[in-house]
Amino acid sequence: MKNNEQQPEFLFDKINYKILLIGIGVIALGFILMSGGGSDDPNAFSEEIFNFRRIRLAPTTVLIGFGITIYAILKNPKKA
């Protein structure tokens, strides 16, 4: 066989995959921040579910993570 066989071409470049993994990590961090705050007793109400971390910080972190992943998908590695 000759050397004129084509190498498989990936859809994204290495930088796109790195940015995508960072975005997925930020999304996972957001969901980890949302977890917890439950009560051991189902009859007792816990105000802990309404704190800043679960209402503001975690959803904002998830949205930023989605923004990063969308950027990684739309980024054209061919342009300088």
UniProtKB/TrEMBL annotation:
Key words, A-Z: Membrane, Transmembrane, Transmembrane helix
InterPro entries given in the database record: DUF3098
Record keyword Membrane present: yes
Annotated transmembrane regions: 20-37, 57-74
The name this protein goes by in its record: DUF3098 domain-containing protein
